[in-house]
Amino acid sequence: MAEHNLDNIDLNEYPYINRGLEGIVGFSTTKSSIDGQKGELIYAGYNIDTLAENATFEEVCFLLWNDRLPNQKELDELKSKLTQKRELPQPVLDYISSTNKEAEPMAVLRTATSMLADFQSRNTGDKNKDNQSDAITLAAQMPTIVAAFARARQGKEIVSPLKDGSTAFNFLYMLNGEKPGSEAEKTMDLCLILHAEHGMNASTFTSRAICSTESDMFSSITGAIGALKGPLHGGANTAVMNMLLELDKDPDTADPVEFTKKKLASKEKIMGFGHRVYKTFDPRARLLRGMSKSLSEETGHTTLYEWSEAILKTMKEEKDIDPNVDFFSATVYYSIGIEPDLFTCIFAMSRVSGWTAHYLEQADNNRLVRPRALYIGEKNLEWTPVEKR
Q: CA 219, 221, 223: angle at the middle one, nearest 5?
């Protein structure tokens, strides 16, 4: 395989290369704004702190899909539509029940989400209305997929969704087989809000690129799930939890400071730190940090929280790097009894609100995504017959 060495390439003759498309503006959007210097995150005009304090996940979905908050009637209508669409088609349930119980949950979510496209009827003649309906279907059914597989792989009976209650309440009910308390619901709802939307990240770019071909929303979201699955994107919070559990193997002798320094010395990446955009504390991490502290005290996971704080301090002192959303979301999910390999799935069932919002926006003012690539290989080579190669 040819090495990607640009030393002998005259870049003046070619378009400027931005590796990872860093700094490239390919879209305009009303969905979110990030100020990396201030550590500020805005959803459709509203600061994340304002939404965390006042909003529900359902309100955030409406906001991202419509660029405004709903009135009471509109909110009630959206909640009703979401509850009506929670049930999965039987073939999708059959797949979840019969697939490999050792499969990665994100892989199962990706496949099941793709299957949902087979059961959508589009007879309205209004493309935007159909897209809005698909967005609601995805937001309603992805939590059901996650909870169903979580139980099926443990040999437990899949719990049917409720006909009422919030997305957060219903998900925890389906996951655990019992109705959650108000604090657990509130925690889950806030986590969904904090992960709902975040600019032109890799999975959102993927969803818009697929939409730009005029493919359907289910294809777009399936691609976005595939992008989120990677450890450099949505999979980081699982890696954070696995790191903390590695320390927990011998809690009496665990030293998170030396543990972190040793990993840094061996050039290992500490997951949950650093961000392409933020140059200061990720505002979502700040909110999750407070939740992590209170939950750890409530559930008896204080050691995990204390280790997290020690790692945070060490990373700041050694590398001057702040945590991102993945760092404290790991301990929050773990403290409410969610298995680490489900963390990214929860990220996805929240972020689907943002992905579908971007799909709606791209479809409304579409242009095919078609960047250029700089060819750095050889040209016009002479053909060598196979027997002489």
A: 70
Q: Which residues are catalytic?
A: 275, 326
Crossing angle between the packed helical segments 105-116 and 90-98, to the nearest 10 degrees: 160
Q: Are 34 and 40 in contact (CB under 8 A)?
A: yes
**206 and 277 inside one domain:** no
In a domain, 311, yes or no: yes
Same domain, residue pair 217 and 85:
yes
Q: Which two tokens stand for residue 164?
A: 């009422």
Summarised one tens digit per residue, pLDDT across range 272-326 is 887 667 677 888 888 999 888 888 888 888 888 999 999 999 999 999 888 888 8
Identity of the amino acid at 263: K
What is the pTM (predicted TM-score) of this model?
0.89
pLDDT at 6 over 60: no
Number of separate domains in the chain: 2
Range of the domain at 104: 42-231+349-364
Q: What is the CATH number of the domain that holds 256?
A: 1.10.230.10
Q: Is 14 inside a domain boundary? A: no
Q: Same domain, yes or no, for 214 and 289?
A: no
Going by DSSP bridges, is the β-strand pair 40-43/46-47 parallel, antiparallel, or unpaired?
antiparallel
pLDDT, position 4: 57
Token reading at 40: 């500020």
Question: What pLDDT digit, counting tens, does each position of 168-210 carry?
Answer: 999 999 999 999 988 889 999 999 999 999 999 999 999 999 9
